[in-house]
Structures are given as structure tokens and as C-alpha cells.
Design goal:
By secondary structure, the chain is an all-beta fold. 0% of the residues lie in helices and 15% in strands. It is globular and about 50 Å long.
Length: 176
């Protein structure tokens, strides 16, 4: 049935307590540009077919308490400009392939309390202008070459209680 919605541009799944996973056939939503999943979903991950959504520009996963990981196929979301994985999730790491999201402008990781580190490969996100790591209580350090993010204008680190070192390379962020 979902395959019949190829002209759907926005899909919002909100407060679906029993929603466990997106079907693999989500890839047939060829016009989808916004995917918004929020509030107490039981969803743990996205199907690998998510990478086939060539027009997906905004991916929001908010307050998905059991969400654990992004698939490596996220690297194929060439149109993705906003990735928002905020609040109350179980993510411990981001896929290294996140560095292939060359059109990513905003990366919101607010409240990812189990996130241990941001991959070094994030410095390859040449379009990134906003990175919010607020309330990421487990992060101890930032990528060593974060200063290479020349378009970064906002770096938010509020209440990152375990952040132990503030890197010298941050001084080369001329847009902050």
C-alpha cells in the first residue's frame, strides 16, 4: 500500500507508541522530502532502504527513546540538509558514512546522552553551518580537526558535562 504514495512529500509519524519500524518499501516514496518521527516511538533503527530516498532533505527523529543507530546507507541521502536526532534516544555512535552528506547544513544531536563521540569524519561535512551537541552528557572530546569546518557558524555545547578538552583547532573556526 505504501508503494502507492509515490507523490507523498512529507511523512509525519508522531506519538505512535507501538510503531516499531519503518517498512523497507519506504524507498518507494520517491518524492519524500521530509520524514518526521517523534515522541515515544518504539522504533530502534531505520531500514537500510532509507538511503534510496534521493529527495529526502529533512530527517527528524525526536524523542524516539529506543532509537539506537542510523544505517550506513544514510550516506546515500545526497539531498539531506537537516539531520535532527534530538532527545531521549539510545544512540551511542554515528556512522562514519555521515561524512558523505555533502549538503548537510544542520546537525542536531541535542540530548543524545549516550552518544560517546562524534566521528572524526564529520570534518568532511563542508556545508555544515550548525552543530548542536547540547546535553550530550557522554561526549568527552570533539573531533581533533573540527577547525576544518569553515562554514560552521553555530557550535552549541551547553551542558556537555563530560567534555574535558576544548581543542586548539576550534580557534580556526573563523565563522563562529
Amino acid at each position: 500500500m505504501i508503494g502507492q504514495w509515490q507523490h507523498l512529500t512529507k511523512l509525519c509519524l508522531q506519538r505512535c507508541e507501538n510503531f516499531k519500524k519503518l517498512p523497507h518499501c519506504i524507498a518507494s516514496l520517491s518524492s519524500l522530502s521530509i520524514l518526521y518521527i517523534s515522541h515515544y516511538n518504539s522504533i530502534e533503527s531505520l531500514p537500510t532502504t532509507i538511503g534510496q530516498l534521493q529527495h529526502l532533505a529533512i530527517l527528524l527523529l525526536r524523542r524516539c527513546e529506543n532509537f539506537k543507530e542510523l544505517p550506513q546507507s544514510i550516506a546515500n541521502l545526497f539531498s539531506l540538509s537537516i539531520l535532527d536526532i534530538c532527545s531521549y534516544n539510545s544512540i551511542q555512535s554515528l556512522p562514519i558514512t555521515i561524512s558523505q552528506l555533502q549538503h548537510l547544513i544542520e546537525l542536531w544531536l541535542v540530548g543524545c546522552g549516550n552518544l560517546m563521540k562524534v566521528p572524526q569524519s564529520i570534518v568532511n561535512l563542508s556545508s555544515l553551518s550548525m552543530l548542536d551537541l547540547s546535553l550530550c552528557k557522554s561526549i568527552e572530546s570533539l573531533p581533533t580537526m573540527i577547525g576544518q569546518l569553515h562554514h560552521l557558524t553555530k557550535l552549541l555545547l551547553a551542558r556537555c558535562g563530560n567534555l574535558k578538552e576544548f581543542l586548539q583547532s576550534i580557534t580556526s573556526l573563523c565563522s563562529l
